[in-house]
């Protein structure tokens, strides 16, 4: 019996002590893109759990990221040819999140070490994977910058520095607003607990964004049974085009 | 109120869509035009991706022409034989247009192709209409001015493979109508228009058809070519947005009825000049976008989406 207790103690000591743990919840874990969807606010909240007393030294920070389903993309650059502005050069992106928000308790470059950022791919630029084989473009960084800039303007990429509130180093909360032009899919949500620039714990969950029933049905039909879908489009056009003028004729007489 | 468009995958204001449909319907009722050449560029302006705008615009053309076709069939003002020849050309043209559309899509130049086509055609048509309108206005003020001869013999009448078109009272080669139909089909596929603005003048001045059957016959061809093009876009690009089409059609048919009544109160020469100015304004806006340096030189396209 005593042997077993000693063994258990040894095992516990051998494990890396997880002095601080992060727990989080979301106000909404499912979103439906209905006909009148106008965007949504997600509240991310939680607490730091401690087995040991609060360490004396080191700053504690919380970073929350929400990442929409990544897709490949092609970025085009326009230039003037024969007097008009046309696409002349393109660069492929292997994967870029369709949505990416980073909310934190302070400016990322101050609270997060480069090493931790690289490992967990937290900052926006690290969430984008360029296609390495595309060596034809003279200045690939300009293309990636443009991707971030365009999506920032559409509120699809958000850098929300100092938007997370952390109370007494224990309770945290933040709201992230999702714009109306969302792509459906699973939105990976990560919460990082950072002490002295290093990630000491992370919490992973996801938000499920789905088109509503009718939109889902139309979308699936358009891609899976395009012929039938085309007939539906024609049927509706003929019915409404003919029906409306017939209705007006009846109204007039 | 916002509407989420499932194929375009954007959310737009429902009243804006009804307004676009209704406004264009109003104009098409007033001027007796299909309005596809106005709907598609207006959809670009409100942020609908050009492939979806073109495919949905052509679907809307089906809706706006059906009641006209039925009315003309009843009144027997459709030259079915000529319509069928034009249609045969139109289907070939539409297939060529769809092919060109898809090639340009993969090259990343589809927006350019669509915009350039609009600038060229709207510019040309707008100027021609303006000139016609001004001439008609002058003639109305000064009735002694010489009238233009309508029916003239030209090179069209000297081509082989002649065919009789009884309703039109014509005995001409099948090639000119086939080519006219084909040109219209290409335009339907690339621009999302019915193509009446090309076909009607071509039928009158090139083929020498009597005006009595021109409108019915062109509507007949337009409806079938637009239906075929809608199917082609739906099957090859999945770019027809039924939700968008529905709002445009509902707005459009109501607008057309109101417009038809308003059109009766205005003088036809004035109407033509107004329409010409409108066409030129849309043309100017698109040309401006091509010629002026855009504020953002980069753009993103996602393979497999619009």
From TrEMBL, chain A:
<dbReference type="Pfam" id="PF09608">
    <property type="entry name" value="Alph_Pro_TM"/>
</dbReference>
<feature type="signal peptide">
    <location>
        <begin position="1"/>
        <end position="19"/>
    </location>
</feature>
<keyword id="KW-0732">Signal</keyword>
<keyword id="KW-0812">Transmembrane</keyword>
<keyword id="KW-0472">Membrane</keyword>
<keyword id="KW-1133">Transmembrane helix</keyword>
<protein>
    <submittedName>
        <fullName>TIGR02186 family protein</fullName>
    </submittedName>
</protein>
<feature type="transmembrane region" description="Helical">
    <location>
        <begin position="227"/>
        <end position="251"/>
    </location>
</feature>
<dbReference type="InterPro" id="IPR019088">
    <property type="entry name" value="CHP02186-rel_TM"/>
</dbReference>
Automatic annotation (TrEMBL), chain B:
<keyword id="KW-1133">Transmembrane helix</keyword>
<feature type="transmembrane region" description="Helical">
    <location>
        <begin position="52"/>
        <end position="73"/>
    </location>
</feature>
<dbReference type="InterPro" id="IPR051598">
    <property type="entry name" value="TSUP/Inactive_protease-like"/>
</dbReference>
<feature type="transmembrane region" description="Helical">
    <location>
        <begin position="85"/>
        <end position="104"/>
    </location>
</feature>
<feature type="transmembrane region" description="Helical">
    <location>
        <begin position="12"/>
        <end position="40"/>
    </location>
</feature>
<protein>
    <recommendedName>
        <fullName>Probable membrane transporter protein</fullName>
    </recommendedName>
</protein>
<comment type="similarity">
    <text>Belongs to the 4-toluene sulfonate uptake permease (TSUP) (TC 2.A.102) family.</text>
</comment>
<feature type="transmembrane region" description="Helical">
    <location>
        <begin position="270"/>
        <end position="292"/>
    </location>
</feature>
<dbReference type="Pfam" id="PF01925">
    <property type="entry name" value="TauE"/>
</dbReference>
<feature type="transmembrane region" description="Helical">
    <location>
        <begin position="110"/>
        <end position="130"/>
    </location>
</feature>
<dbReference type="InterPro" id="IPR002781">
    <property type="entry name" value="TM_pro_TauE-like"/>
</dbReference>
<keyword id="KW-0472">Membrane</keyword>
<keyword id="KW-0812">Transmembrane</keyword>
<feature type="transmembrane region" description="Helical">
    <location>
        <begin position="170"/>
        <end position="193"/>
    </location>
</feature>
<feature type="transmembrane region" description="Helical">
    <location>
        <begin position="242"/>
        <end position="264"/>
    </location>
</feature>
<keyword id="KW-1003">Cell membrane</keyword>
<feature type="transmembrane region" description="Helical">
    <location>
        <begin position="213"/>
        <end position="235"/>
    </location>
</feature>
<dbReference type="GO" id="GO:0005886">
    <property type="term" value="C:plasma membrane"/>
</dbReference>
